[in-house]
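Researcher: Here's a chain I'd like modeled. Treat it as a single chain, no partners, no ligands.
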Amino acid sequence: MREASEVHEDPQLVEYYKIVDIVGDFDKRLLTVKSWGVTLSLAALGLAFQFEASGYFLVAAASALAFWGIEGSMKSHQMRYYPRMREIEVARAKLGEPGTSSPRIDWSWSRARLQLLGKVSAESGAPTLRDRSPGYRHRYFGATVLLPHLVAAILGLGLFVLAHLKITLW
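Model: Modeled as a single isolated chain. Structure tokens:
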């Protein structure tokens, strides 16, 4: 087991844990963007019904799409730190001495799904650069970023169309 002073003296570990902190800070910012997007979209939908003005439905849809774009962009910036994190994990695993452990935060996340499916064991070896799941670079288009923005955009556009087709909404 490494002493805390060894971690502070090892530049590679210092870099690794700094990357972990940066990735965590991104998550805080992403949550703020998501909450602002939901708040603005729901407020616009509420205003549309309050003032019986269908233009607010478009505001709700446009703001949802805009915040999805912002969140996707931020997520792509966050994801750019993961390859370096993996490189450090692999390098540390190769240098590992018996009885020591290397950091494996990113590696454990990529292995978790396979472990749940029973395809690998928890002790299935050291991390490699090939342990990525398919589509790793394009996850910012996934459900964690897209939702709830997609719901608000579809709802806003759908209600706008219904209002212009003269289907009574209020």
